[in-house]
Write a structure and sequence with these properties.
The protein has 221 residues and is of the alpha+beta class. It contains five helices and 14 strands.
Length: 221
């Protein structure tokens, strides 16, 4: 299908145009378009704080696209990043419970469940000093979008999956799963399935550091 992409600031300068028509395979999301633009123009900017608008309204990267949609890539304004809810992300910066809640909160949600995975101080009888998380970020986010979309269809929920990478200290948040639904059973079920599937299929790896060495963890507990 063909969509129109509007570019501003660094993205416009890198591409040399302010508007382009992009042919992209179906089904496609707003995030797919961003990744294609950044593949073509890697010097456009860091991508940090980038907002996406579809037909004049802010959307998150999971938003589906249709033939003829107009997508605008909006870099941070001079006063700071545009604040918009992102339902799937992998990043080095600390995670925010408020961001995850904002991504799933809506007027029809009668129940919201949030799971936090944090770095614990002991594992298998050893004192843990820190964890290192590494991800194949592009594939990880794609798999997380698949999981979220499937859970939303199955449970009638809205799901956010946020994971941190890099070095984390004891007590820091490594992963957030948030789910909202009209009723609490569906919200609980979607959140539980979300963390279980994320741990089993998403390409994110954990290296555990203890006083006597470090090891890559394979059991995803």
């Amino acid at each position: 299908m063909r969509v129109t992409v509007r570019l501003f600031a660094g993205y416009r300068e890198a591409a040399g145009v302010s508007r382009l028509d992009l042919d992209i395979a179906e089904p496609a999301t707003a995030g797919d378009v961003v990744r294609e633009i950044r593949r073509r123009h890697p010097h456009a900017g860091s991508g940090r704080g980038l907002a996406i608008a579809r037909n004049g309204d802010y959307v998150d990267p999971m938003a589906p696209l249709a033939e003829g949609d107009e997508l605008a890539l909006i870099p941070p304004v001079s006063g700071g990043a545009v604040q918009h809810p992102v339902r799937v992300l992998v990043r080095e910066e600390p995670l925010s419970v408020d961001e995850a809640l904002a991504a799933v909160r809506h007027e029809s949600a009668g129940g919201i469940v949030v799971f936090l995975g944090t770095v614990r101080s002991a594992s298998h009888g050893k004192a843990v000093t820190r964890l290192d998380y590494e991800a194949y970020a592009e594939m990880a986010e794609a798999k997380m979008r698949e999981i979220a979309a499937r859970l939303e269809r199955t449970h009638g929920a809205r799901v956010a999956l946020h994971h941190r990478v890099g070095t984390l200290g004891i007590g820091e948040i490594a992963v957030i799963v948030a789910a909202s639904a009209p009723h609490r059973p569906e919200a609980f079920a979607a959140a539980r399935a979300g963390i279980d599937e994320l741990k089993s299929v998403v390409p994110i790896w954990k290296k555990e550091h203890t006083d006597d060495g470090a090891v890559w963890i394979e059991d995803h507990a």
